[in-house]
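ok so I'm stuck.
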Amino acid sequence: MRSLHNASGLWRFIRASVKGFSALPLLVAPLLAASLFPAKGLAQVRFQPQESAVLLKDGSTQREAGALRQAMQRWRENPKDIATATSTARTAILAAIRHGDLRWLGNAQAMLEPWWTSQEIPGDTQFVRALIRQGKHDFEGALADLNAAIAKDPQQPEFWAWRFAIYMVRAELPKAKEECAAIGRRFGSAEQSSCYAVLLYRTGNPAQAVLELDRLSLHPDYQGQNAQEWLAFHRGEARRVAGDRTGARKVWESHIRAGTASHGVRVALIDLLNREGAYLDAWKFNDKLPRSDALLVAAIQTARALRNGQEPALVSEFSQRLSQQAARGDSINERPIIKYKLEINQDPKEALRMAQLAWKTEREPADALLYALAAIRSGMPDQATALLRWQSETGYREPELDRLLGDIRQAGSARGKQ
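replied:
not stuck anymore, here's the structure
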């Protein structure tokens, strides 16, 4: 299932997921706004990193950096060749996913600009365009491209896997379950196992998901680096959802110490450490510079708790990113920004407004947690009753979110008795 697992780097986060991108310096937010490109079709400067600036430090190798630079050079030599543009755009997207550097997503769109509105393109090109569109939160456009790509070339597991991922982000579980079943029918049980495991812990059965994911970690088809990174995230996340924070921490720390951890695994671990109050460990694991937006917000939280004198500089850095976003007119609400408003600015009402807006398109557990926290801290738990319906429909359970939703439910009952 190598092709499927290469694609599944966003299944969190895609985390988180489709939503799992997190922007790096000069970038504010996991995915790009609709106005990335000016009329001439060139990416804004901040989305055009030089190859020497590509951030390939986190568990990567010089060979990986060299491959990316070579791909960029091939495209420059023949930018009108659709096969070259598609291959290079895919390479750029993988860099954006694995290293949390969205500037490469901007480059990817520039590469496909000559065919951006065309439907007369190969399925692989349509698939890559779908990834860019989902990165801009154009989920309808992404699904349209994925549907077309599958119609043209239905034997590509990664096409199906990414459509499954979008259904999960939108909490369209009946469609996600059918997609996972279709993957099994078309590609076999080994291909189906990964989406099945994710569905298990996202629908209230994390203990069984842990067993399934641990089994997959030993499967011969899951021994590649991308597959192991994907498994590391989900093996830890399933344990966390089951209430085994110690087990989650062990999985994620072990993966990072092995030197191959993706950005998503690092974000998950540091968020967990901050929630547990293990601030010294959180600071130690958050030492890769420059930091993505998600890691920068986490670093601010850690620095504030440790009182280590780093908070002012970190806040200034993030404020600059927000100013750049405002200057561009970006309007996408992202988890790091909502979290910043809630935890750093301590403005729960603004965080609630943003969380409600984000909930219209992204309905993953991480979105639900921020939404619930913002509603409770703002003193308006009645504004988050949509989360009660979401939990009832999905069956998703985890200790921290269960506690928050219990408070929201209790507040509603109290008002009903008045």
